[in-house]
């Protein structure tokens, strides 16, 4: 497994691999890898990638000033071991300084699907995500890129960006990986105490037994969670839907203690 820190070297390697006829998959991550990320590498293998490039980069541009950029969990050594074990062929570990050169002033803004949900609560978040993902696409020339369904809105926004900007690649969305309790795997779960972990399962339980937005919100509040949003939207357009049913996605963001968790289900 190769490791690259310099974007130019990463780009050159991918270009050479591509010219050699190899099919490249990109798995973009912010590191602190868990089974959810490993399932993305698995999905890349299953789809026949010859080269699986995992990027590990905590992207400062997608965090708000009051968010957890500084404390976001990082463990490079463990990430490298997990990538090797899972079958990645290259890992890209750039620094913020070499991803964002002095006077960086170009950003990618998706202006429709980014408006609501997390986009409304985290101003600038999807601008940061789209910008870094567009850069990663340009640096790795993937035939396809794999994202997790846990970040449902993110996956839709990236699909739209790929379509609108004519990136020549497929976006693959892999199912949510859950703990035995139902809690969706997330690097941020590491912030939770044992007691919070228990209470956080109200989210996946509520989604699995979804009846109405009002009931789900009540159940989350009863479990002591602070609801950021519970919304039922059209799974494609992300526009609010009054009547939940086929083709809808129900999305939750809620604070368990200080930790903001997200989860969703497509009906
Ligand atoms: O989902 C994530 O971990 C990040 O938003 C991504 C796609 C790696 C961009 O930084």
Can you tell me about this structure?
The chain has 267 residues and is α/β, with parallel strands linked by helices. The protein has nine helices and nine strands. Strand 3, helix 3 and strand 4 form a beta-alpha-beta unit. It starts with a strand and ends with a strand. 38% of the residues are buried. The structure holds pantoate.
Secondary-structure map with pairings?
Elements (H helix, E strand, L loop, with lengths): L1 E3 L2 H13 L4 E6 L5 H12 L4 E6 L19 H11 L3 E3 L3 H4 L17 H5 L3 H16 L3 E5 L3 H13 L5 E5 L19 H15 L4 H10 L3 E9 L13 E9 L2 E8 L1
Parallel strand pairs: 1-4, 2-3, 2-5, 3-4, 5-6
Antiparallel strand pairs: 7-8, 8-9
Helix pairs in contact: 6-7
Bound molecules: pantoate (PAF).
The percent range for strand residues is 15-25%
What is the radius of gyration computed over CA atoms, rounded to a whole number of angstroms?
Answer: 18 Å
Number of strands: 9
Q: Which molecules are bound in this entry?
A: pantoate
CATH fold-level topology of the largest domain: Rossmann fold
Q: What average pLDDT do the residues reach?
A: 98
Question: Short summary of the structure?
Answer:
The protein is of the alpha/beta class and 267 residues long.
Task: Supply database-style keywords.
6-stranded parallel sheet, 9 strands, Pantoate--beta-alanine Ligase, Chain: A,domain 2, 3-stranded antiparallel sheet, 9 helices, 2 domains, alpha/beta, 20% strand, single chain, globular, binds pantoate, 267 residues
């Amino acid at each position: 497994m190769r490791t690259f820190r310099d974007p130019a070297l990463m780009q050159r390697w991918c270009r050479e691999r591509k010219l050699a006829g190899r099919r490249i998959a990109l798995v973009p991550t912010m590191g602190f890898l868990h089974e959810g990320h490993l399932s993305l590498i698995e999905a890349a293998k299953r789809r026949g990638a010859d080269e699986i490039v995992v990027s590990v980069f905590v992207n400062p541009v997608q965090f708000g000033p009051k968010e957890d950029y500084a404390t976001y969990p990082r463990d490079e050594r463990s990430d490298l071991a997990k990538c090797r074990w899972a079958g990645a062929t290259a890992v890209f570990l750039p620094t913020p300084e070499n991803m964002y050169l002095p006077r960086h002033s170009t950003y990618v803004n998706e202006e429709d699907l980014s408006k609501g949900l997390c986009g409304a609560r985290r101003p600038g978040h999807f601008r940061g995500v789209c910008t870094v993902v567009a850069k990663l696409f340009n640096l790795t020339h993937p035939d396809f890129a794999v994202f997790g369904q846990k970040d449902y809105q993110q996956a839709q926004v990236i699909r739209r960006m790929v379509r609108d900007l004519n990136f020549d690649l497929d976006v693959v969305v892999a199912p949510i990986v859950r703990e035995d309790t139902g809690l969706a795997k997330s690097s941020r779960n590491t912030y939770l105490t044992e007691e919070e972990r228990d209470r956080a399962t109200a989210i996946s339980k509520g989604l699995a037994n979804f009846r109405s937005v009002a009931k789900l919100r009540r159940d989350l509040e009863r479990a002591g969670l602070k609801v950021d949003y519970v919304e039922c939207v059209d799974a494609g357009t992300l526009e609010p839907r009054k009547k939940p049913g086929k083709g809808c996605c129900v999305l939750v963001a809620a604070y368990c203690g200080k930790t903001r968790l997200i989860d969703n289900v497509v009906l």
